[in-house]
Amino acid sequence: MPKELLSKTTTEVAKMIENKEVSPVELTQSLLDHSHGLNDQVNAYISFREDAALAEAKVAEDEISQGNYRGPLHGIPLAIKDNIYVGGEVTTMASKIHGDFVSKDDSSVVKKLREAGVVLTGKLNMHEYAWGIDNNSPHFGPVANPWNPDKVPGGSSGGSGAAVAADMSFTTLGTDTAGSIRIPSAACGLVGLKPTHGRVAKYGCFPLAWSLDHIGPMSKSVADAAATLQAISGHDPRDPTSVDVAVSDYSATLDSDPKGLKIGVEEDYFFRDVDSPIEDAVRKQIDQLVDQGATLKTVKIPSLRHSEWAELATSLSEASAIHHTDLQNRPEDFGADIRFLFELGELFSSVEYLQAQQIRRQIKQEFTAALQEVDVIIAPTLPVMAPDIGSPVAQLNGQDVDLIDAFIRYTGPSNLTGLPALTVPVGLTDGLPIGLQIIGRAFDEAGVLTVGAQIERTNPMEGRRASIGA
Amino acid sequence: MSISVKDILTDKGVHPSEEHLEKIEAKWAEIRQLKGNLENANLDDADIALRNIPGGDHVA
Predict the structure, then answer these.
(1) Measured between CA atoms, how close is B1 to chain A, in angstroms?
(2) Is A339 within 8 Å of B20 (Cβ atoms)?
């Protein structure tokens, strides 16, 4: 099977599978061979499901040959982040402590992916317990960015980002508590969607911070993200935060043009302290949408000035509560970086945690008001580019800035509000991708995907792909 | 009386290394500074969305 097939998008290869031009078994074997060949360099996979994947591919192939095609993920080989449970198999959370953990059940999203007919090829590397943004794992090794292997892929879903960028998975899932879908998607040149909180059920996903956690797609194209979201959306009462709302057809409006679209820009927070090439690329895309008939309006969200503290107080407190006992009893089994964060999270008082929730509600109310004036708010996804592996800082217009603070600054607000936020690639600087973020109304994933598709059609990446895997 | 970072952590059964303790104290000072401007946020009567749902997680 030609390797070029692996560089196709999910929706492109799905048509070939549906038309019986491509065998899921051969496609899976080809993807596994390609992934094994690259994994020493990229380190995206923690474990492979070689035999199970080929068996699942054979089932898919037989079903399709008998005329029982299920839809665009049927027979598609993909891997998922290793904090999402596959029943009866090890899920490590990229940790030492859970290195042998076997879940009884499939997670809600794996159950839905199986119903869609996917082929699960393995589990993907991640920042330990999803509590970090550079994916430099002390237990499973660092993940390399396929655009430049000296650079971080972002995190915590760094293995997911690297795998899709290097054609080691057609599409995948990430988890996002302060930006962990959007950060690696932006750093690896992918489309990444953090859905509305409650849209995708989290049963069977190891928590980082209950009230901020989300699961969503990381894909090669907007259409792929829409198809992946379609498969995993929906209510599951086993997740206390799951919301029982209707699931839209996320692909239905992707072809619409931007005429009449109302774009909001918030200048005081989202365009303050951003690296110049990133700002230029994002504003250029906004201008292109306006040229095609969209209108632009400045919106004000004053409480955003408190969002970094509220995000830290909430995420650090919730994560430290989850790991409190292990922090007391076996702290040396955590990587040094996340042990530091868990220790830090022990310092917040209950009053401070609740003040953070008060701030959070104010931010929600202000976003809701702004999104009554406009359809979406557009911002950079990251204010800085991906630094070298091992660097604690990034460069912002020539100055060193703290990497964690910078990477989560523009993504964190949508975890506090729970609003859907999509990143799409909009160009390169120094050979690395730039991400643009589209924030939408609650449960309007179709809206942000549609704007993402409008941007994608302007071809801002000009067909350029990551050097590793191509 | 001010309670040190070390005292708070010790009280919770958490014992960072000396090296970690210095980093924690420095980062905690940054976080306190970040919080400083909350005085302008007018939080005294701001409601929050913690919900107590009788009967289960999803009962209306």
Answers:
(1) 17
(2) yes
What are the average pLDDT values for consecutive 10-residue runs of chain A, which has 470 residues? 89 98 98 98 98 98 98 98 98 98 98 98 98 95 98 97 98 98 98 98 98 98 98 96 96 96 98 97 98 98 95 98 98 97 97 94 96 98 97 96 96 98 97 98 98 98 90
Distances (CA, A) of A312 to A225, A269, A411, A420, A455: 29, 17, 13, 20, 32
Give the gap in angstroms from C-alpha A257 to the nearest C-alpha of chain B: 37
Residues A61, A433: Cα–Cα separation, whole Å: 36
Amino acid at A464: R
In sequence order, the 6+-apart residues with CB closer than 8 A to the CB of A281 are: A426, A427, A429, A434, A436, A460
- Annotation says A81 is catalytic: yes
Residue B40's contacts (CB-CB under 8 Å, 6 or more residues apart) are none
- The DSSP H or E segment spanning A429 is strand A421-429
Say whether residue B50 is in contact with chain A using an 8 A CB cutoff: yes
Beta-ladder partners of A28: none
Residues of B in contact with A337 (CB under 8 A): none
Query: Which residue of chain B is at minimal alpha-carbon distance from A308?
Result: B34
The domain defined by A3-170 folds into Amidase signature (AS) enzymes (3.90.1300)
This complex has an ipTM of 0.92
Domain residue spans in chain A? 3-170
Say if CB A45 and CB A124 are below 8 A apart: yes
Side chain identity, residue A185:
S
Give the DSSP per-residue string, A160-224: HHHHHHTTSSSEEEEEESSSTTHHHHHHTT-EEEE--TTTB--TTB--SSTTT-EEEEEESSHHH
**Cβ separation B41–A306 shorter than 8 A:** yes
pTM of full prediction above 0.90: yes
Are B20 and A343 a contacting pair at CB < 8 A? yes
Nearest CB partner across the interface for B27, out of A324, A339, A344: A344
Q: Which residue has the tokens 């899921």?
A: A24
Q: Which token pair is B5?
A: 């970072």
* CB of A180 closer than 8 Å to CB of A159: no
Rounded CA separation A104/A381 (Å): 36
> Does A303 sit within 8 Å of B20, measured CB to CB?
no
| A406: its two tokens | 């910078």
